[in-house]
Amino acid sequence: MGREKITVIGAGNVGGTTAQRLVETGRYDVVLLDVIEGIPQGKALDLMQAGALVESGGHIEGTVDYKATAGSALVVITSGVPRKPGMSREQLLEINAKIIRDVVTQVAANSPNAILLVVTNPLDVMTYVAYKVSKFPRERVLGMAGVLDSARFRAFIAAELKVPVKDVQAMVLGGHGDSMVPLIRHTTVAGKSLNECLPQDRIDELVKRTQDGGAEIVALLKTSSAYYAPSASIVEMVEAIMRDSKKILPCAALCKGEYGVNGLFVGVPVKLGRRGGEEVVRLSLSEQEQAALARSAAVVKELCALVDRYL
């Protein structure tokens, strides 16, 4: 049996780095698509030549034609514009909702059995747009944010305690941004509770830094946003799905009553396998965590009401 096809839509920093990581596994045929003629072809050619050195054996094709994406097992969607100075949240929502609508319409027509992995911000709302437009079952539409937020939180904890990051386990739920909900009681360092390792004020500072993780990088880079950690987070999800690992990762998934959320995409623990998001895993939350998740869902609900008019 040949390698399965994975398409990455959007050949910017996040999409290009994701394509690199995927092709270098050697497990997939990767298609990199963008609307700007020359960009995906150039990046794909560069990656193909890199393949001679890293000897991955993966195949990559750059294109502006959705026909090349036909029959994809999984499609990663990174298209969209970042928020620019002076742009309101509603303006960003309108622009990106229309981009995602057009992208997903093409993707669904060419790969009706694909799993969609949405990365475009505002993440939870764009995943909702992809779900409404594609009419795919809930298992096959997921958003990437919780894996990235959890990775940032783990990295900050590991640096603070001077321990290997693999010894830190953490789970961040809720919306991507200020309303994210790090589960401190479920955060451990080599099996030891985080509360036993750090005082509350330091934990609060690390949570705040995690919430501002993307903004901190934008402030330093000035002209772009993060892409190494986001692309690694995407590939973590892709690999869990394609290899049917049943790994439990925090993803934006459609909740139908789980955690008291109904009809919205919010970050929750999801068991990932070959069918996509195979199960929303229920963790015990404290009253405070449950209330924070409800606040996060309320923000998402408000934004979803705004984008409905563009669908």
Please provide a written account of the structure.
By secondary structure, this protein is α/β, with parallel strands linked by helices. The chain is built from ten helices and 14 strands. A six-stranded parallel sheet has the order 3-2-1-4-5-6, with helices on both faces. Strands 7-10-11 form a three-stranded antiparallel sheet. A three-stranded antiparallel sheet has the order 12-13-14. Helix 3 links the parallel strand 4 and strand 5. Helix 1 packs parallel to helix 2, helix 1 packs across helix 9 and helix 5 packs across helix 9. The mean pLDDT is 95.
Summarize the topology:
Elements: E1 4-9, H1 13-23, E2 28-33, H2 39-54, E3 59-63, E4 74-77, H3 89-110, E5 115-118, H4 123-134, E6 141-143, H5 146-161, E7 168-169, E8 172-173, E9 181-182, E10 188-189, E11 192-193, H6 194-197, H7 200-211, H8 213-221, H9 228-242, E12 247-256, E13 262-273, E14 276-280, H10 287-307
Parallel strand pairs: 1-2, 1-4, 2-3, 4-5, 5-6
Antiparallel strand pairs: 7-10, 8-9, 10-11, 12-13, 13-14
Helix pairs in contact: 1-2, 1-9, 3-4, 4-10, 5-7, 5-9
